Amino acid sequence: MVRMRKLDHRKALVLFSGGQDSSITLAWALERYADVETIGFTYGQRHAVELEARETVRAALRAAFPDWARRLGADTVADAGGLKDLGETAMTHETEIHLAEDGLPTTFVPGRNLVFLALAGALAYRRGIGVIAGGMCEADYSGYPDCREAALRAQLEAMRLGMDADFEFQSPLMHIDKAESWRLAERLGGARLVEIVNEHSHTCYRGERDARHAWGFGCGTCPACELRAKGWAAYTARG
Ligand code: ZN
To answer: Residues with Cβ within 5 Å of ion ligand 1?
Structure first.
């Protein structure tokens, strides 16, 4: 009989897109785990800025936090390009960003987080990493069903069974809104971390990085920018 593979739960693999939420999740993991790796995905995104932001955020964290620099390990970029081939969305094609008939924004890529988690699991399994962490959030999001905790928990259970490995899933932002996640960043790394995430993380669906707002770079009008601006305003208004 095959015995369940024992993974090391002092090690974490962070799903890291270079966005605000995954950057804060990476900081959270660096504070908590002895070894932290990151994984990102190419899936035919329209904009490469997201992937560039990953490098910048990692480098800035290393430079500003020596303890974290010692813990931050390899970065892997995996190809999930099949998602683009299977259908048109505003993330991968020149489709207008709006709410579709099903109530979901056209930026929704069906199954994306499920695929990302399975691929992260494949890497974590090989590396013996027990914890998979992601910045998914169901408190303050665009309605993507694969950001919901129930879907992610079920996916992790499928991975535990399908790979016979004792994966653990952590999503520290799941139940907090964007303002609270900025407060979490502040607790983790003070004003310096807030500044790094604000300056270098990338959220905008249009890939816009020319205009700098109080809340960071972005077009200011896409749903991702609106959410980010709203969260920053709530965070800074707290006094
Ligand atoms: Zn935008």
So the answer is: 204, 206, 218-219, 222, 225
Distance of CA 23 to the CA centre of its chain: 7
CA of 202 to the centre of ligand 1 (A): 9
Threshold 0.85, pTM exceeds? yes
CATH fold, domain 8-202, is Rossmann fold (3.40.50)
Instruction: Give the position of tokens 């020596």.
Output: 66
Cα(15) to centroid(ligand 1), Å = 21
Measured in angstroms, how far is the CA atom of residue 125 from the centroid of ligand 1? Answer: 35
10-residue averages of pLDDT along the chain (239 residues): 84 96 98 98 79 95 98 95 71 63 66 91 97 89 77 94 96 94 98 98 90 95 91 88
β-strand pairing of 212-213 with 216-217: antiparallel
Q: How far is CA 227 from CA 6, 95, 135, 177, 232, in A?
A: 39, 20, 15, 10, 9
- Please identify which residue in the block is written with the tokens 């908590």: 32
Domain boundaries, the chain: 8-202
Phi then psi for residue 166, to 5 deg, are -90, 65
